[in-house]
Amino acid sequence: MRDFFLEIALDKRKGLFALFLRPPLYLLSLIYGLLVKGTCWVYKRGILPGYRPQAKVISVGNITLGGTGKTPLVEFLAEALLRKGKRVVVLSRGYSLDEPRMLENKIEGLRVFTGRDRIKTAKEAQDALDPEVMILDDGFQHWRLKRDLDIVLLNSRNYFGNRRLIPRGILREPPSSLARAEVIVISKADSVKDISLIKNELGQINPRALIVECAYKPECVSDAQGKVYAWSIIENKNICLLSGIADPDYFKKTASDLGARIVSDQRFPDHHQYHKG
Q: Contact, 184 vs 210, CB < 8 A?
């Protein structure tokens, strides 16, 4: 069902049913847009109060639905700050516990505090560990918790979608909201031929932002027991893909670029909970 509506939002779904759904979805997106503007207005004018923790707060977020690469960037920032001797915590909504667990298991000394109430989790983290830096995962649309740096990621493969707000499009906020960001990261930059076109448009929206690009490079391949191999082990091999992520197309591209022959591609929804058969 999620994939069905996502295909409609991206204008990929054809047929009478999709055509019938687009007008009501467009009306809903207009209502959603008014709510977004209203939320922005009341917080900017101080009508609703915000909370500033003692620690510095770095927000890592996006303006589209999933697949931009927030978690790898959160991991990168946390590791870099820990290497500098900083006391760091991550604040996560905890939509699914797979990413918080992965971060804690992968990065020694990192604590991830989860909860829908970001103010509550920030206070819990402050009381428990007295961190110097809090990394707010998926925080660009969260106005209550004040931060010192806003980093926004865009997927170069589909950076604004059809330029409509959800549910008619994939935008959580209009592109103009990028004017609030200090840093804009164009992820999966190796997927487009001319990244300068995206950079030019972003520069017009926010001339003061630092605009950077990144791509993902696999380090290794591991089996179910955790044994690690060089990624070259899949070169010229018949491979069956199994994924539960927001951008399975990029996962498939990565495997193909490594020389794998993909014979099957099984896709599950983002954060899919796997079970033994």
A: yes
pTM: 0.90
Q: Can you state the angle between helices 2-9 and 16-44, rounded to 10 degrees?
A: 80
> Options 2.30.30.240, 3.40.50.300, 3.30.360.10, 3.40.50.720; which CATH number does 56-213 get?
3.40.50.300
**C-beta neighbour count of 89 within 10 angstroms:** 24
H helices of the chain, where? 2-9, 16-44, 70-83, 98-106, 118-129, 195-205, 248-257
190 contacts 215 by C-beta, under 8 angstroms: yes
**Rounded average pLDDT per 10-residue block, the chain, 277 residues:** 70 80 93 96 91 97 90 96 97 80 91 94 96 97 96 95 93 97 96 93 98 91 88 92 88 92 90 75
* Domain definitions of the chain by residue range: 56-213, 221-267
